[in-house]
Design brief:
mainly beta, Methylamine Dehydrogenase, Chain H, four-stranded antiparallel sheet
């Protein structure tokens, strides 16, 4: 990993460059008053402002506190996910989910209604989405999508869901409202579906594949967990990566970017098992980040 986007607690967004170890490292200012962001690549960044406006921004990036080249995608945005620079799924503050397409600049742009009363979503492709309702029900939804206010064709995956991550349309990692983590498999339609227990007391996770996951416990301890997974209530084989962790993003099974509860951001390396492991500090006073492979 040579570059990482970092959002500071002051809501300023930076692109930071290796070698890490100096705080802050070499970096380029991107924007300010940022709520969240998604880097599609180092040339195209979707930025959600604290005012709820969503922008597609690109170089040349400005000097500190100036606004660079950008085009507005939408307004009154709660969450979003860009498939590419021309296709963005947008969840509005009214909990309606849309698939929006370039050219951007008109608010709203050309768009297709997907669903309403949405709490979270993951876009697999333009025809398939995993959608979490505000009622905790999780669905696989697919085209043809309906007109505004209508429900699209869909199959229920599970209920009482807190968060999820689809590896593909047939394999989904699901965190229940009871903080138990499961690996669930198609065919869906029965609640719950065929599934394998992974762990409990979980607050966050990232599935590397069906046999390897990075799991953050409610106690702030971060683990690399792997198969064979145990029966319900048992701990799987695992190695501790770090403690006092707020959030993380694995680059791969050997390298993890970790944000501590103190706001310090680290690039951590295997072999794991010592707390903390071998690591270099990236920055301080961080709130969110995205490593670039």
């Amino acid at each position: 990993m040579s570059d990482v986007f970092v959002l500071g607690t002051d809501q300023r967004l930076w692109l930071e460059h290796s070698p890490f170890g100096h705080v802050p490292p070499a970096r380029n200012f991107i924007d300010q008053n940022v709520s969240t962001f998604q880097a599609l690549d180092e040339q195209n960044i979707l930025v959600l402002g604290s005012d709820g406006k969503l922008w597609l921004e690109h170089p040349p990036f400005p000097r500190l506190d100036r606004v660079g080249p950008r085009v507005q995608v939408d307004a009154d945005v709660m969450a979003f996910h860009g498939l590419d620079a021309g296709t963005v799924a947008v969840l509005g503050t009214d909990r309606r989910l849309w698939l929006e397409k370039a050219p951007f600049g008109n608010v709203p742009p050309a768009r297709q209604f997907i669903d309403q009363n949405v709490a979270g979503f993951q876009v697999l492709d333009t025809d398939n989405l995993i959608v979490l309702g505000t009622d905790g029900n999780l669905w696989h939804e697919h085209s043809p999508f309906a007109r505004t206010g209508r429900v699209p064709p869909r199959t229920q995956i599970d209920s009482n869901v807190l968060s999820f991550a689809a590896l593909d349309v047939n394999t989904i990692v699901v965190l229940g409202s009871d903080r138990r983590l499961w690996l669930e498999h198609a065919p869906f339609g029965n609640v719950p579906p065929a599934r394998q227990f992974i762990d409990q007391n979980v607050t966050g996770f990232q599935a590397l594949d069906t046999d390897n996951l990075i799991v953050l416990g409610t106690d702030g301890n971060l683990w690399h967990e792997h198969s064979p997974f145990a029966r319900t209530g048992r701990v799987p084989p695992r190695t501790q990566i770090d403690s006092k962790v707020q959030s993380f993003r694995a680059v791969d099974a050997q390298n993890v970017v970790v944000l501590g509860t103190d706001g310090n951001l680290w690039f951590e390396h295997a072999p794991f098992g010592h707390v903390p492991p071998s690591r270099q500090q990236i920055d301080a006073n961080a709130r969110a980040f995205q490593p670039m492979n």
